[in-house]
Request: fold
Amino acid sequence: MECLQNWPEPIIHVQSIADSGAATVPDRYIKPISDRPEIGKSTTVLDQQSIPVINLAAFSETGDIDHEHACNATLMQEISVACRDWGFFQVVNHGVSPELMKRTRETWRAFFHLPMEQKHKYVNTPKTYEGYGSRLGVEQGAILDWGDYYFLNFLPWSLKNQDKWPCLPETLRETVEEYGREVVELCEKVIKVVSRSLGLEGDYVKRVFGGEGVGVSMRANYYPRCPQPELTLGLSAHSDPGGITVLLADDRVQGLQVRKDGAWVTVQPLSDAFIVNIGDQIQVVSNAIYKSVEHRVMVNSEEERVSVAIFYNPRGDVLIGPAQELVSPARAVCCMPMTYNEHRLDIRKRGPRGKAQVDTLKSSSTPPNLY
Reply:
């Protein structure tokens, strides 16, 4: 993948601006009117049952999603409807310890509360994005988001750089390692159910993503209090470029919004649940039967917000195209094959821009038989 070596301007961490007591949002963070959140206006808000909720207990009961069992059939149908209608769902009875979930979120909160000189030891660059950062994209003069983050690679092992894992708080490395292992197991459960819900073999998606060479990364997000939340966003509208995302949301502060039928819908996380969304690569593999969905993050003037996302992605150099089983005279191929490295380069260059990067995949040509 083309290397992006340096940021175009000096990095100013949003937390520094918030901690300075600034009464206004700097111009660099003010979004165009069309992109601003409708805070205080009449908006669609989900109740807890509106966003699909998937109970993964059935997966644990049968032990094998390929087994012909009524629980499996129901689970696959629920996943299929959620992926078709929303692209987002929450999972409960997922097997990850609620105590570990809480500990992970609060450990990252403690990191972001460290003195700035401690965090600066891990400042990132656009070459890999690993470490402590405050922007996506390298376009000079771009309008920025009101948020800081910490990005880490888990898999493959060749990309895991322990030098980028913070030493403080003292429990961070151990906690993040344990959490990562458990959530990767959850990702593979979800990927298997997604495969089967498409009528594919259970290991299909993992296999075409590169098998044991799949990529897994973490992004811990910190959205400081904002003096004018109606003018900016914590994270601009985008769809995730990879496979699936498993999000541990803040248990105290809402902020995630999903685009549904042209409107922005605020997600209300369930206690001890994960929010899961499908990314562009699942849209590609499913031949657009399932579609990645735009989402964004609001900020507020009263509370900071912390969330932790795990991304389960294809190996960077593997061509990803529509599954041949899902191509038919009635359903032409949705796009040409492309590697994940090529696909995500657009968002790494220009930052989050809706689903603009997905448009680059569209083609009327027939892809080769990859599998």
Q: What stands out?
A: Residues 57 and 93 are 5 Å apart (CA to CA). Confidence is low (pLDDT under 50) at residues 42-49, 363-371.
